[in-house]
Design a protein that fits this description.
18 helices; alpha+beta; Four Helix Bundle (Hemerythrin (Met), subunit A); Formiminotransferase-cyclodeaminase, Chain B, domain 1; Alpha-Beta Plaits; four-stranded antiparallel sheet; 3 domains; seven-stranded mixed sheet; 14% strand
Length: 560
């Protein structure tokens, strides 16, 4: 069964006292089964956003311990800050990350709330997908009145807590209340303005946020048919927003919660805010990401701005992220470090040494050593990487060629294909060595009893099959990648004919080298129908590769 992962993003009402923040976050560092990803304090808001991830049960236990510690070190009687809040741990959302449904995550949220209520005697509400009623789905409703109105709220029968005491006693006066949820991934995102006016920042927020603004005619609020205040909806769905002044930076900001980035992305929120600000005589100077963000959201932003510039999208992730950071002004107030802010980068296993992370010299030295791996399979895959990288380079150069502006999208599409082939081949560089190691591990298995011998033989057979399938995948991918170089030889810039030609030759070498690996590994497979089938398929790819090589070399000779 695949490992389940949920993310927890508690917001604590302390952003200034580093010793208190450390005492609370150390609880997560010491907890088993979770990984602390980010701690993002804000002085003006007097609030810290903490992000950690792990197995659901471990996350729930760590979250409980964090809430307990926050209730011990934070006194809400003394708290003030720009951000709405009503408790020491103000909110504690759970977000499904991998192999777990929203429904399951909501059950964990309920379990956490019940424990907080019973053991810590902190009152609280379930919101979003964990909400117990429709009017409690919206966090703003649950937190309305904030800490200062909590005593009155707890005495209101309509707002009896979902868990914990309904009385505003001395303990609750210190801890406040908490809101716990199961929700989709939310991006907390602030946009910076060249003004100090909170009123003007709010006006833009009302233009953009889904809830919009109250409808007012002749200075009076208009009521709908049910007698409720009528509203003028804002431009973007799944967006909440308010304006505020941040003394720390000396500017007004619009603080957004993007509650569903598949509906409204960060870059769309940014661009629409730019338009709204310009209409009101203001200028957006940059933006600020609070907490973490998925990699795809950054790549989508990079693609969006590259497309607006009519530039090729077929560049690597690091370059796309750089474009996104500069276009959104994410480094306007402080440096933005992708390795510290993008979830997938923080979850990377840094303990595993990868061949593709070595320098060219290190890879050559590693290959030249007396170790049996990396061997021909990994090198064949890497030669394929170099080949399609050349084809991708020609596509990117062609997309940027003066006078070819109308054709930029065609070449961009080819460059994107090239990048996809490159990434697949990079994975196979290391996977070929991993496959070899699986065989070695199988041979090291004990063989003292008949049962052990049987298990060992089966492990060797399976590992050998896998070690045959991987170079076959190298063949398939390198062969398919030749389409990029073929297209560039026919339609790309003519000054780069030789680059595309080298790319074709590299791809052919990758196919040939991997073909040799398929054949040499397949001969040791006991399952003959399996080995015969894969060798037959590999031979067809090899022959097709030779044909393309000859056709392309002939084309090159005619155009040189």
């Amino acid at each position: 069964m695949k490992k389940q992962l949920i993310e927890c993003v508690p917001n604590i009402s302390e952003g200034r006292d580093t010793s208190k923040i450390a005492a609370i976050t150390n609880i997560i560092k010491q907890a088993e089964g979770v990984q602390l990803l980010d701690v993002d304090p804000g002085k003006a808001t007097n609030r810290t956003v903490i992000t950690f991830v792990g197995d659901p049960k471990a996350v729930i236990n760590a979250a409980f311990l964090l809430i307990k510690k926050a209730s011990e070190v934070i006194d809400m009687c003394k708290h003030s800050g720009e951000h709405p809040r009503f408790g020491a741990t103000d909110v504690c959302p759970l977000i499904p990350i991998a192999n777990i449904s929203m429904e399951e995550t909501a059950k964990y949220a309920h379990a956490l709330g019940e424990r907080v209520g019973k053991e810590l005697e902190i009152p609280g509400y379930f919101y979003e997908n964990a909400a117990t009623s429709e009017n409690r789905k919206n966090l703003a409703n649950c937190r309305s009145g904030e800490y200062e109105g909590l005593q009155q709220k707890l005495s209101d029968n309509d707002w009896k807590p979902d868990f914990g005491p309904a009385a505003f006693n001395d303990s609750v006066a210190k801890t406040g209340a908490i809101a716990i949820s199961a929700r989709d991934f939310l991006i907390a995102y602030n946009i910076n303005l060249n003004t100090t006016s909170t009123r003007r920042a709010n006006a833009i927020a009302f233009d953009i946020r889904e809830n919009g603004r109250a409808k007012i005619v002749n200075g009076k609020k208009v009521l709908d048919a049910q007698g409720n205040p009528a509203r003028i909806p804002g431009k973007l769905k799944a967006v909440k927003g308010i304006g505020w002044f941040i003394e720390e930076y000396g500017i007004a900001q619009i603080s957004y919660n993007l509650t569903n980035i598949s509906i409204t992305s960060m870059h769309i929120a940014f661009d629409e805010t730019v338009k709204a600000a310009t209409k009101r005589g203001l200028r957006v100077t940059g933006s600020e990401l609070i907490g973490l963000i998925p990699l795809q959201a950054m790549l989508d932003a990079g693609d969006y701005f590259l497309t607006k510039q009519q530039r090729s999208l077929g560049i690597d992730d690091a370059e796309k992220i750089k474009i996104a950071v500069k276009s959104l002004g994410l480094d306007d107030l402080k440096p933005f470090h992708p390795k510290e802010r993008i979830i997938e980068y923080l979850l990377e296993d840094k303990s595993t040494k990868k061949l593709v992370d070595l320098t060219a010299t290190q890879l050559a030295n590693e290959t030249a050593s007396e170790s049996m791996a990396p061997g021909g399979g990994s090198i064949a895959a890497y030669v394929g990487v170099l080949g399609v990288s050349l084809g991708t380079m020609v596509a990117n150069l062609s997309a940027h060629k003066r006078g070819w502006d109308a054709r930029w999208k065609t070449f961009s599409d080819w460059a994107e294909k090239g990048q996809a082939y490159k990434e697949r081949l990079l994975f196979l560089v290391d996977e070929d060595t991993n496959a070899f190691n699986k065989i070695m591990d199988a041979f090291r298995m004990p063989k003292n009893t008949s049962e052990e011998k049987e298990k060992r033989a089966a492990a060797i057979e399976n590992a050998t099959k896998y070690a045959t399938e991987i170079p076959f995948q190298v063949m398939e991918t390198a062969f398919a990648s030749m389409e990029v170089m073929q297209a560039m030889l026919k339609d790309g810039i003519k000054n780069s004919l030789s680059d595309s030609a080298v790319g074709i030759l590299c791809a052919k070498t990758a196919v040939t080298g991997a073909y040799f690996n398929v054949r040499i590994n397949a001969k040791d497979i006991k399952d003959k129908p399996f080995s015969e089938k894969i060798i037959t398929k590999a031979a067809k790819i090899y022959q097709a590769t030779l044909k393309i090589e000859n056709e392309m070399l002939s084309l090159i000779d005619k155009n040189m």
